Each structure stands twice: as structure tokens, then as C-alpha cells.
Amino acid sequence: MPIDLNVQKLNGLNVGRVLHSNKTCGEIIDHIAHELKKKMAKDITENQRKLCVLVDESTTISGKTVLVVCLRSALADAEPETFFWELIELDGTTADDITKALMECLGRDFNEDFLGQCFVSFACDGASVMLGKRTGVATQLCSKFPSLFVWHCSNHRLELAVGDVVKEVSGLNHFQIFFDKLYSLFHASPKNQRQLAQCAQAVGQRLLVIGRVLSIRWVASSERSIRAVWENYRVLHDHFTNAANDTSRDSRDRAKYKGLDDVLTSATFVSNLGLMYDALTELSDLSRQLQKREMTLPTADRLLTREIRVFESMVTMPGPHMTTVHTALAEKSFKGVALRENGRLVQIHAGQFFRSMVENLRHRMTSTTSSHVSTREIPLHGREARDNQLIQDMKVIHPGSWPEEELDVQYGDVEVLRLCEVLKVDRRETVQGFREYKETRASRTPAAMEPLLKAVRTIAVSTSECERAFSCMNDILTAKRNALSVSRLSSLVFIKCNGPSLGQFNPEHKLQTGLDMYWLKQGDTSGTAGFESLAASCVTDGSLCYFGPSSLQVID
């Protein structure tokens, strides 16, 4: 920080004479994060807003196991939105350790009465430690909050559905192995990457990054890899051909490139490529939609239902890329490259593939299960049966699910009452509002219906916000800045994710409360002049130029 202050002095900024240490910078960061969090928590508790908690576990670059906690609520009467809350350093990775740490985190900002009334939903990934039926975190939370709705992240379940398809459909593993070879070939050798770029430049194409497909990463990354091969097909063929004929390479290398080119130019591979491009385009679109902060369960259900219909249609009607492939197979040429038969490759059967996709999406995306157990392998019971019923009940409050004929006056009342009981919303007032809602065919939303609708929208669909927080954490905690404590790191991530931009940030209140906290309450005013000078310069300048590089990076 002292180096940065010297730079700001050269820029003409009056930064005072004291409070210039790294320790002071860290304390100011913690104080700003604390004040922002206190304001948000006050809005949530005073207005009794419904609360959804999202968690995920990871490891920092310094090897510490942390739990990221995100919340979803309707701040300032706006629509419910998901936001980062805190990073917690874990003493252990058992369900008991995680539950204890999570409850301590929530207890610092929300009292038990509020949590008992407004903590309505818990979302996580499918790890056994989270969703274990006997001692998982979700089970322990449900013992404390019996009405808690538990949701397994839709994006993680989408990956599980795709994984089930890979296991069931022959030919997919061969396709996956080929992409793994491409990935290792170009990512392990800058020379190969450079030669591939030269081939792309020769034909006037932009080189796209080729990664793994159907791996642990979400399907959007697989779609990018498929698109890279589709777009750079001619480039790859030219590179493989040149390398296979390059006498400066040894015979083993030339044989490897010759084998890759034989696979690439086979009609079977091109057919599989078009099929997977169509499927992964649809799946990546669905995955990105589910990751949106404003996504709600009813909307996600409609998206999933529509996507299933799309895959059912693709059983008999090819998608756009498969249509292109059919033309290429008839002409025995794809993107100017001659195609040939390769009997060693296994062709993916389109009908089997899309039927498997439909079945696994239906089974994986409906109720909460642990990641290693498919829902069709176990009967629903207890909490899972209740949560599954709740999902069905939510459909009733959306006009798209209503029959076209005139509705009975009591249509959906039972479902609405069940929703009110679980989400802790006034029952009679909501039922009356729902009846008015039906009479107007949803042309307007009665005020009595708003609490229930907002409570339903508070339930998180995806834990993608936790992944965003991890990305932010990795941006801040670099190899040269890995000595940050988890609590300080949490403050930085909180400001980065939730704080206003530099142009909108007004530090006057934060600096004044910091002044009161650190000096006036202790009867020590020795630092007051420097602190007030710092505050005045920041307020006048409208920036936070006295911060170190880490905090300048995180408040944007």
C-alpha cells in the first residue's frame, strides 16, 4: 500500500499523513464489507423477507478448505436475487462441521426467530456430505427447520443427466477420447498450438480453443469445444496432413497425426460431430438459462419441459447441424475435405441418444437426490416426496398450466394452501388473492398473491452464484497474494460481488463510522486528522484511491 500511496501523491491526491499501512487498508476493507452486510441484513430481517441459502465447498490456492455461502432474497422490495454472503474456513469437511459453520455464519446476522420463520429453502450441489439421507447437511438443517425446502442445483443435475447418457449410449466414449487427445496434443505443446494457428491464418479462419468434452466442467464448455472443431475442421485437417508428412518429425509422431486425420475425415466422425453439436447447443443454452440470477423454479420447469420436447423431436427430425452433415455425407465432402469410411469408429445412434437424453432429463431434473443415485433407482419418500409435491403445487399458480375452459372457483386452492404452509405465508389471504387471480385470468396480480409469488421466486434454481464467488476468490487470491486470511478474503469478495462501482460509491458514511469505531470510542483522536483528511479527499475526488491494488480491483 505505501507504494500505491506514493503514486497517488504524485497524482496530486491529498492522502494525509497517517493510516497508510497495509494493516489499516485491511481494516478499512473489513469495515466497508461489514457496513454493507449489516445494511443488507437489516433490510432482510426488518421486512421479514424470505431467505434461501446456497452453499458450495472448495479449496483456496493456499490449500484451505472453505465454504462459500450465498443468499437469495428480495432486497429493497425488488425481485428476489442471489448474492454472495460469506466465505467460511472449515475445520473439517464432514456434514457436522459444515452444518456447524453454516449455522454460526447465519447466526451472526440473523436471529433464530427470523430463521425459523423466513429461512424457506436450501440449495447445494449433489455431494453426499450435502444431501446424505441420514447425516447430510440438508438432513441436519431440516431437523432444525422442518419446513425447509431442499433443492439440488439444476446445473449439477443437468451434468449428471448428461453423464448418464454417456454411460448408456455406445460411441460417446470413443468421441470423448478423441477430444481428449486433441486437448492434450495442443495444450501440452506450444509448438503444436503455433503450427495450428499458422494453418488457421493460411485459410483465413479464427482459431478457437479446443477443450475436453463431457468432462467435469459444465456442458457450455463442451459445446465450445465441439464448435471449435466444427469451425476449424479444415484447419485441423491441414495441420494433421502437414504434420503427418513432415519428415522432421519422428515416425511415431507422424503416425499419431495420420491416425488423428483418419478419424477426423471419416464420415462416422462427422456424423457424430453434427449430432453432438446439435445436442450440446441445446444443453448449453439450457445450462446458461439456469445460471441466471433471476431464474425461478416455475420458469426453469417450463424451460426443461420445452427442452425435452425439442429432444423428442430430434429423434425423428434432425437438427440444423445434422442436416448439414446429411448434405455433406451425400456429397462425400465436408468443408472442402473429402470424407471416407472408417470401420473402426462407432456411430452414435441418433434415436437412442436423444431418447436416453429425454429419459435422463426427466428422471434427474425432478427431485432432490444425491449425485451418485438416479431418481429412477429409488422411490421418493419423506422429505423428497414432500419437495416433489411442492414442485407440482407451484405449477398451479402459473396461468400457463391452467385448463382453457372456465376454472372452478376452488381450482388450485389445496395446492396453494400447501405452498403457504411450507413457505410460511398467510393462508386465507393468499387463497382469496388466488381466487381473484383466477377470475381475471392473471390479467393483474392481486396484492394478496404477491407474498406467495415472491416466496416461490426466492427459491434458488442453481448454485452458479457460488461458482462465480469462487472465480472472484481466485482472481483476488493469486499466487503472490496467498497470505490473505479467509475472513479478509471474504470481505474482498463481498465488496467485489455486492459493492457499487467506484463512481457510485460514497465513502463518507463508512469512513465516519470507521473513525468512531477505531478512535473516538477509545478516546484516542491522534489519527483523526489523517483519517478526516483521507475522507475529505475521497469524498471530493469521488474515488477510493487510497486503497491498495487488491481493493481497487475488487470494487468496480
Give a summary of the structure in a few sentences.
This protein has 25 helices and seven strands. It is of the alpha/beta class. The protein folds into four domains: 82 residues, no CATH class; 144 residues, Nucleotidyltransferase, domain 5; 207 residues, no CATH class; 77 residues.
List the helices and strands and how they pair.
Layout: H1 2-10, H2 22-46, E1 51-59, E2 65-73, E3 81-89, H3 95-109, H4 112-118, E4 119-124, H5 128-131, H6 137-144, E5 149-152, H7 154-168, H8 172-187, H9 190-202, H10 219-231, H11 233-244, H12 251-264, H13 267-290, H14 297-314, H15 320-331, E6 333-334, E7 337-338, H16 350-364, H17 382-396, H18 413-423, H19 427-439, H20 450-458, H21 464-476, H22 486-498, H23 508-518, H24 528-541, H25 549-554
Parallel strand pairs: 1-4, 4-5
Antiparallel strand pairs: 1-2, 2-3, 6-7
Helix pairs in contact: 2-22, 3-6, 7-16, 9-11, 10-13, 11-12, 13-14, 13-15, 14-16, 17-18, 18-19, 21-22, 23-24
Low-confidence blocks of residues: 368-380, 519-556
Strand sequence of the main sheet, in spatial order? 3-2-1-4-5
Characterize the overall form: globular
- The pLDDT mean sits at 80
Percentage of residues in DSSP E strands: 5-15%
Please report the number of helical segments.
Answer: 25
| Category by helix and strand content | alpha/beta
What helical percentage do the residues reach? 55-70%
Total beta strand runs: 7
Task: Calculate the terminal CA-CA distance, rounded to whole Å.
Answer: 19 Å
